[in-house]
Amino acid sequence: MAVIPFDDRDGFIWYDGALIPWRDAKIHVLSHALHYASCVFEGERIYNGRVFELTRHSERLIASGDVMGMKVPYDAAQLDAATVETAAANKIVDGYVRPVAWRGSEMMGVAAQSTRVHVAIAVWQWPSYWSPEARMKGIRLNISEWRRPHPQTAPTTAKAAGLYMICTMSKHKAEQSGYEDSLMLDWRGQVAEATGANIFFVKDGVLHTPIPDCFLDGITRQTVIGLARKRGIEVIERVIQPEEMAGLGECFLTGTAAEVTPVREIGPYTFTPGEISRTLMADYDALVRG
């Protein structure tokens, strides 16, 4: 299947306050963000013409910018309106939204306090990765050699572009070895998350998930915890050591792209996608499409 590059498509992108033709949405090669990763972003999904948790995503983009010392020049209501406008202009009913804010090219050096912060929002068609039946088979993960950093060494509370460098490296190596994704441990050697999704385990009918103290507490993660508790399923956020995975029955990932995706293998550990995974997957699908 031919790959359609993202810089050569029809449609419109919201760029610094106005819709412009898709192909005109460009930045200069000497933009600070390209050289120093001064960039934050969001990933959002449109279901049946509605962006799920749009305002929370807009607020998180602004908060990530604040962590990075970058004042996003729009408030959440303006970002929400721009997202709706962009989706309508591109006639997207079920798709993906990528808001991004970055430092421009006014200065080139580590210090760049006089650079302009730009904002763009792109929307494109993106159906679910897999059907519910295919998802229930579970995906396979290896265990990455890269680890999530200590909060004192990186802005781990921000959805910052630079934090995903090791995610790309980990996912590439996983795919080259026949896996779909990679489990990342944190700097302590504890279970953290996958390359772009949070992780949950099931033992004796109870959900267990790592404490998000050095990685994002995902919006989908929070949503699924709420759905589980609504079902009366106990959720425990705790330290999970890798060797504990040998005694855990079910496992699944949560994220904007992953939604709720069962896992059948992580390195030497195997899991059996079961009733809790199936229930939460169905509850999440019903919520976002409702």
Describe the 3D structure:
With 290 residues, this protein is an alpha+beta fold. It folds into two domains: 114 residues, 2-Layer Sandwich (D-amino Acid Aminotransferase, Chain A, domain 1); 158 residues, D-amino Acid Aminotransferase, Chain A, domain 2, CATH 3.20.10. Helix content is 26%, strand content 30%. The chain has seven helices and 16 strands. Strands 8, 9, 10, 11, 12, 13, 14, 15 and 16 form a nine-stranded mixed β-sheet that branches. Strand 15 and strand 16 form a beta hairpin. It is globular and about 55 Å long. The mean pLDDT is 96.
Largest sheet, in brief, is: 9 strands, mixed
H and E order: EEHEEEHHEEHEHEEEEHEEEEH
Q: What is the count of structural domains?
A: 2
Total E-strand runs: 16
CATH uppermost class of the largest domain: Alpha Beta
